[in-house]
Amino acid sequence: MSVTDEYLANNDAYAAAFAGPLALPPARRLAVVACMDARIDVYRVLGLREGDAHVIRNAGGVVTDDVIRSLTISQRLLGTTDILLIHHTDCGMVTFTDDGFKQQVEEDTGIRPAWSPEAFRDEEGDVRQSVRRIRASPFVPHKRDIRGFVLDVKRGRLNEVK
Amino acid sequence: MSVTDEYLANNDAYAAAFAGPLALPPARRLAVVACMDARIDVYRVLGLREGDAHVIRNAGGVVTDDVIRSLTISQRLLGTTDILLIHHTDCGMVTFTDDGFKQQVEEDTGIRPAWSPEAFRDEEGDVRQSVRRIRASPFVPHKRDIRGFVLDVKRGRLNEVK
């Protein structure tokens, strides 16, 4: 039984207990941008209920053009207004450099990525960088409530970055 | 009390009951790519436990360059090998066209996005498109186990796209 087959069996149980359909637009008008890290179960960390908030995740929780694309669709088409960013301690993104990563990929594949790997040095600094990128975007209309956090993965606690 | 403050109160309870630290690399060597839709609690839909799998999410669950970036980091630096894609029924991405969206943004802001909004016509077709984009990438090393699904948001059930 593959890992995916095991999760599909779990989905059978989920579907059997499924409470019924919810509306498409996020009920709490919130979009969360978080790192893809396996330890971060965003719904549990925040006590989100299904239907509350869009959840956007990538390597680092970094605000890239794709996150701007998702936030633009989230706010313009689906009515969200608030943004909550989650980076975390013990993040893989501080373990390499963009130049080193691109060089290694080029050595292994012969091709140098045209995209930036988006490594960073410290989590708090990258939360601030991410907030600035959202504020600088002409496409995201609502910027009044943007707050950034670092999740302490040893304690499960969100610490706000001011 | 703002929405975010309310979720921070939830996080206090989460941290108080936190079971303790987990390892950085995903235990089940899986990366999930899913839509940001608020109704999809990926951990519950699949029965994932914290620490099991990377979770990458954006508008549509579409494989963009940023998803390729995240998958490349996931596989090359953190040891994942399997990929599971989740699109879903009643998706906002089928309600507009790329041209229409870009034109509307340009009319409202004066600036035309240089990125593709990535609207699609049908969920199954875009799951197949997303799988093809991963297979075509020179940067993602492990492609043996890539499986794509459409989540029925009325029933909570994952249906595989063959």
Summarize the structure.
Two copies of one chain form a homodimer. Chain A has 162 residues and is an alpha/beta fold.
Keywords:
homodimer; 162 residues; alpha/beta; Beta-carbonic Anhydrase, Chain A; 19% strand
Q: The CATH topology of chain A, please? A: Beta-carbonic Anhydrase, Chain A
Mean pLDDT of chain A: 97
Report the CATH C-level class of chain A.
Answer: Alpha Beta
What is the distance, rounded to the nearest whole angstrom, between the alpha carbons of the first and last residues of chain A? 47 Å
Q: Sketch the major β-sheet of chain A.
A: 5 strands, mixed
Helix content of chain A: 25-40%
Largest interface: pair, residues per side: A-B, 91 and 90 residues
* Unreliable stretches of chain A: none
Pfam family, one (chains A, B): Pro_CA
Cofactor (chains A, B): Zn(2+)
GO molecular function (chains A, B): carbonate dehydratase activity; zinc ion binding
InterPro entries (chains A, B): Carbonic_anhydrase, Carbonic_anhydrase_sf
What does this structure look like?
Chains A, B: Its cofactor is Zn(2+). Chains A, B: Catalyzes the reversible hydration of carbon dioxide to form bicarbonate. Chains A, B: It catalyses: hydrogencarbonate + H(+) = CO2 + H2O. Chains A, B: Belongs to the beta-class carbonic anhydrase family. Chains A, B: It comes from Streptomyces liangshanensis. 2 copies of one chain form a homodimer. By secondary structure, the first copy, chain A, is α/β, with parallel strands linked by helices. Chain A has a single domain, classed as 3-Layer(aba) Sandwich (Beta-carbonic Anhydrase, Chain A). Chain A has 5 helices and 5 strands; from the N terminus they run αβαβαβααββ. The first copy, chain A, has helices spanning 3-16, 42-46, 65-78, 98-109, 123-136; strands at residues 30-35, 53-58, 82-88, 146-152, 157-161. Chain A has a 5-stranded mixed sheet with strand order 2-1-3-4-5, with helices on one face. In chain A, β1, α2 (42-46) and β2 form a beta-alpha-beta unit. The longest helix of chain A is centred in the N-terminal third of the chain and has 14 residues, at 3-16. The first copy, chain A, starts with a helix and ends with a strand. Chains A and B meet through α1, α2, β2, α3 and α4 of A and α1, α2, β2, α3 and α4 of B.
